Amino acid sequence: MITMTEIARLTGVSQPTVSRVLNGNQAVNPEIRERVLACAREHDFQPNVMAQSLVGSRTHLIGVVLTDISNSFFADLVKYLEREARASGYSLILFNTNYDPEHEKESLDVVRRYRVDGLVAVPVDERASDWNRLIGKLDIPTVVITKQVRGMDSVYVSHEEAGAQVGEHFREEGFEEYIFFGNTEDVKYQGFAKALKERDPEFGQHLTVISSKKEQKIQAALEQYYSRKRRRTGIFAYNDRRAVQMLGILQRMGVKVPEQAGLVGFDNTYMCEFLYPRLSSVAQPNEEMASIAMRRLLYKIDHPEDDRTEDHPLQATLVKRDSSVRQQK
After folding, report:
1. Is 100 within 8 Å of 310 (Cβ atoms)?
2. Most buried of 38, 73, 156, 266, CB within 10 angstroms?
3. pLDDT(5) > 60
């Protein structure tokens, strides 16, 4: 790849003049400017954005740190973020932490080294003091997406309210026992449990939590559960991937969905429509979230003097399908 020094040699002008031309300075003799630009075009010159960033110019790069890119919800989110960024002349650098705080720390270190202009992040644990410290060290505009972080720009849906929608749905559908497939520290679980408890103070006696992600342990827990329970059970999985895993195990065990067990996932990914039965799931407005988050970040990049933060709560919607709705006879 040709450099500015080589362009200077080929065109017979000084390297500082080449630099001024390629950086858009109009105060250069038109004939010289055209000679330099023609040479740059002929040799497909690409500017060194890392070098430019060292002297205070923007890199026009935005870091995006996600927790699980294999989840199609996040793949969609990146698609919408990239579309919004590209429209304003920015490119993305993507990092996947796989829910690992150490990997997250390494990713943020790379973000700092690349001198990106801004960051969109899904934290592994937004309550961790270490995460807030690492973000503070970056000293760049940052917007949190899908989660709420106090004191930072955040674009998200209320996971507590979304979980409550699932709890209400199970009650309306006549489920008498409940399984939460995930971690009880998850805000979705807290909303789910709160909604059920408001209707039935004794609901804790009818609730089972399965937190393992391992197929054999999940099936063992379900076999033990169904050896004791006979009543219709509503199962809430913390995302669609785990809901699909649960559906496969239930079908292998011969448990009928939704007659014996109703199942609801989270994220409303494309696969929900193509399963049998079709999977009920909580939909997040990912296109709207991405658009708001990127527009807010670009504003922060362009207005560094404005240190206000904005909170953007959005509405989640439970999409009810065959996996949790008993067919009317």
Report:
1. no
2. 266
3. yes
Query: Do residues 188 and 162 lie in contact, with contact meaning Cβ atoms separated by under 8 Å?
Result: yes
Q: Cβ(140)–Cβ(304) under 8 Å? A: no
Q: Write the pLDDT tens digit of every residue in 78-129.
A: 999 999 999 998 999 999 999 999 999 999 988 888 889 999 999 998 888 7
Check residue 278 and give its pLDDT. Answer: 97
3-class DSSP state of 70 = coil
Burial, 327: exposed, middle or buried (Cβ in 10 Å; 0-12, 13-18, 19+)?
exposed
Q: Which residues pair with 92 in a beta bridge?
A: 62
| Per-residue pLDDT reduced to its tens digit, 264-293 | 999 999 999 999 999 999 999 999 999 999
The DSSP code for 148 is: -
Quote the crossing angle between the two packed helices 72-86 and 286-302, to the nearest 10°.
40
Asked if residues 302 and 118 have their Cβ atoms less than 8 Å apart, the reply is no
Q: Do 321 and 278 touch, CB atoms closer than 8 A?
A: yes
Nearest to 316 by CA among 275, 293, 286: 286
Which structure tokens are listed for 254?
A: 């011969």
CA distance 302 to 296: 10
* E strand residue ranges, 173-231: 177-181, 207-210
Strands of the chain, DSSP E: 61-66, 91-96, 118-121, 142-145, 153-157, 177-181, 207-210, 233-237, 261-266, 280-283, 311-314, 317-319
**Token duo for residue 114:** 């690349």
In the numeric block, which tokens belong to residue 222?
Answer: 């379900």
Write the Ramachandran bin of 174: left for phi over 0, alpha for psi from -120 to 50, otherwise beta. left
Nearest one of 75, 76, 123 to 100, comparing CA atoms:
123
**Which structure tokens are listed for 40?**
């740059």
- Among 112, 227, 221, CA closest to 235: 221
Check pLDDT > 70 for residue 49.
no
Percent of the chain at pLDDT exceeding 70 = 95
